[in-house]
Write a structure and sequence with these properties.
Layout lengths: L1 H7 L25 H9 L3 H13 L8 E5 L5 H8 L3 E6 L2 H10 L4 E4 L12 E7 L8 H11 E12 L4 H13 L16 H8 L3 E11 L9 H5 L7 E4 L10 E8 L7
Parallel strand pairs: 1-2, 1-4, 2-3, 4-5
Antiparallel strand pairs: 5-8, 6-7, 6-8
Length: 268
């Protein structure tokens, strides 16, 4: 029964207002490089579309003229989401090619070539910062978080996400490492380190007061459809689920963490 109760509390994708965030269309016209095509194809998969729904749910609507930063913005999809939420949005990345695409597509957003570990931005300037699936690509995660802490205003909010080693996919990866001697990198060879949800929370607590943790799952339900209980709670139609339940939030393939900036003298 506890499992069913947790499922009822699910942040179910079907209940999210999946608004038009102008996802790049696979038939986008014009000459595209192989890198741009790869990123465009990425956002055609349901996994990414539903992940965007989770992010949309977690990003609050802006009031007045609040400023937001998207660190590691790539082609600008999430920078555009910040704009649609009412923020003055700036996206930064180290890839000129992807930034050019973002600038041409999302002309209402601002984009700059910048390294997340060397933020040339004013102190206490932003109200909200996104850092989605970025920290696992860096050799110095502590410096990333210190930089985000610096550019956030007092009581500013960060939303960070990263793959989770403490998940079903992570467990499979651990088996691969031990049995097949194959290093598991959460299906991306550019990942420097894959954290557990516990490790990433411990790291964030040095700079931020954690307000919310959400675990995003890929759930292959087809083999389970014969079970009436699955149909009763509606999971036979849901392949992607997000839980903010205390336990289930820690076990998703992607961990989302929302935190509020700590006072500098309280940083550990």
């Amino acid at each position: 029964m506890e499992c069913l109760e947790a499922c009822r509390k699910v942040l179910d994708m079907r209940s999210f207002s999946f608004t038009d965030v102008h996802l790049p269309h696979k038939n986008f016209s014009g000459h595209l490089s192989s890198l741009e095509k790869r990123w465009l194809m990425k956002f055609q998969f349901d996994f990414e579309k539903n992940r965007l729904s989770v992010i949309e749910h977690l990003v609050p609507n802006a009031r007045d003229s609040l400023k937001a930063l998207d660190v590691g913005c790539a082609i600008g999809v999430f920078t555009n989401l910040l704009h649609q939420k009412g923020y003055e949005a700036l996206g930064i990345d180290t890839n000129k090619e992807l930034l050019t695409f973002a600038k041409n597509r999302y002309i209402h957003c601002r984009f700059e070539l910048m390294n997340a570990l060397h933020l040339d931005l004013p102190t206490s300037y932003f109200d909200f910062v996104l850092a989605l699936e970025l920290i696992e690509h860096l050799d110095n995660p502590y410096k990333l978080l210190a930089n985000i802490h610096r550019v956030l205003k007092d009581d500013g909010v960060v939303l960070l996400s990263t793959p989770n080693r403490l998940s079903l996919e992570g467990a499979r990866g651990t088996v691969m490492e031990r049995v097949a001697k194959i290093g598991w990198n959460a299906w991306d060879p550019e990942h420097k380190r894959v954290y557990t949800s516990i490790e990433i929370m411990q790291l964030l607590r040095k700079f931020f007061k954690i307000e919310k943790v959400v675990g995003y799952y890929y759930v292959p339900m087809v083999p389970c459809m014969k079970y009436d209980v699955v149909k009763k709670i509606g999971l036979d139609k849901a392949h992607y689920l997000a839980f903010d339940n205390r336990i289930l939030s820690m076990l998703g393939f992607i961990t989302f963490i929302k935190g509020v900036k700590r006072k500098f003298d309280s940083v550990e």
